[in-house]
Design goal:
The chain has a domain of 50 residues. The protein has a 3-stranded antiparallel sheet with strand order 1-3-2, with helices on one face. It has 85 residues and is α+β, with helices and mostly antiparallel strands. The chain is elongated, with a radius of gyration of 19 Å. It is built from 2 helices and 3 strands.
Length: 85
């Protein structure tokens, strides 16, 4: 039982460290576009634009934005997919 408790505590400490290092920066670093609805986050800009155009052609939204955001060091580039009605 003592070994199980030790393993559980070690796991909890490791997970706490993982969450602490992957926290997103303050929202002031990347302001959200006014009136937009966040639909998804992609790592591929071409797919973000393809899906945005697909939605316009099928009347799912009237316009879209693939917003560049970089997190971490070295930066992990993400594209936040916003739609506007």
């Amino acid at each position: 039982m003592r070994r199980l408790t030790t393993l559980l505590v070690a796991f909890m400490i490791a997970m706490a460290g993982l969450f602490a290092t992957t926290a997103a920066p303050a929202s002031a670093d990347y302001p959200d576009p006014p009136g937009g609805t966040l639909r998804n986050v992609y790592s591929d800009l071409d797919f973000c634009h393809w899906y945005g155009n697909y939605g316009i052609q099928n009347d799912l939204w009237s316009s879209y934005l693939c917003q560049y955001r970089a997190y971490g060091n070295p930066p992990n580039v993400l594209y936040f997919f916003w739609t506007f009605d």
